[in-house]
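User: Sequence for CoA-binding protein below. Tokens please.
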Amino acid sequence: MSTDLGIKALFEPNSVAIIGATPTPDKIGNRIMDNIVHYLVGETDKSKGFQGKIFPVHPKAEEIMGLKAYKSILDVSDEVDQAIIVVPPQFVISVLHECGKKGVKAAVIITAGFGETGKKDAEQEIVKIAQSYNMRIVGPNCLGIYNPHIQFNGTFADEAPQKGTLAFISQSGALCISAILHSNKVGIGYSHFISIGNKADVDDADLLEYFADDYKTKCIGLYVESMPDGRKFFEEAKKITWRQPIVVLKSGRTSYGAAAASSHTGSISTQDASYEAAFKQAGVYRAKEWFELFDVAQAFSTQLPPDGEKIAILSNAGGIIVISADKAADVGLKLATLSEETIAKINEVCPLTWSKQNPVDIIGDADHVRFRKVLQILVDAPEVDGVCPLFNPGSRAVPDKVADAIYQVSTTTKKPIVCAFVGMDHLEAFKWLNYKGIPTLPSAERAVIAMKALVDRGKFLRRENVDSLTKKYEGCK
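Assistant: Structure tokens for CoA-binding protein:
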């Protein structure tokens, strides 16, 4: 685990002070306090919230949500690991000094109005204060931090993510909220979730080592608009990508995007080609789209990369077969050539009209039994290194039973399986598979892209001569 006690205090605090907590409903300080105490705004059961010590700080209130309130953090007699600061910007500097005098290890500055608005001097003053007290700072201008594994929700969001194995870092607080809504809808879980804001002090690279050493984390995903110290990031990434996959969506690829990034967080984007080359050299997967970031991170955090590069595609719909074959060609995913033995086995369970080749079209009247039998044949075939089962609704097959069939087959193999339930009409079956650790996506194209990422991950590890992949992916199926 990282030896940086400040970073550890961000994700594993024993005590937290909310400076700017308020009894006034709908204020950000009230929402954060509510989430700390109950884990989710509107919840009433305190057993679901943070179980460490909680110290609300407010200049006038005697108590907030049943807890004693303090006029200053200096009035708290206990040690305080983390302070969440949600006061007007003109008070942040004085509050930070008080945190430093108190011995706070880490502070999360929710307050905006610093570098992103051109006030660079004030942001630099924050860094000086942090350094003088040996205190780490997240923000300013951020949403906050989640650690679902200890029921810690230090944000002002309405929803909280589920437990899982993906650590997510975002420079945008608003996109954090979108990520949570998307993930809760489809069944993706997180080990940690952090909105990093302006990155005045703690940046992406500071967090890589912590997450790489965290046994609950199987993949690190990042949304990045700027990298003030790109060299530091890539040097750190090179140290860990052989044991911990990293997926990055680096925006600002175009002149329009770079200009938007500058106005959003006060950052200046450099030439994108240099980033592209550095990502490849470091073994970092670069997503080009928002959903690709989560699709690939989900695949990395639940599936072992294949030992080879040849993939089988299985579907009950001819149109999906054609679409997936085109996308496989587009992204360079190699399709396995089925052996005569494999074809003979599929002949025994499919009508004569099945495709007789890969992609494997088992015909629209396929039920869950046929789906399971053919999928088992494919994962057992020595010429196949991974399988993409792509289910089309509206057939004889019952979605819940197809989902169970896919899961049952997955327990018999270490080969990667990446699914699509096209259209996501049957959301419960779709979500259940994701909860079971089988990445399931709403389109054939997205499933193919995620599988290609796993193939490329396997090639990278073989190039780096990494052995015993199962040990490196402890916790995967």
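Residues 468-477 have pLDDT under 50 and may be disordered.
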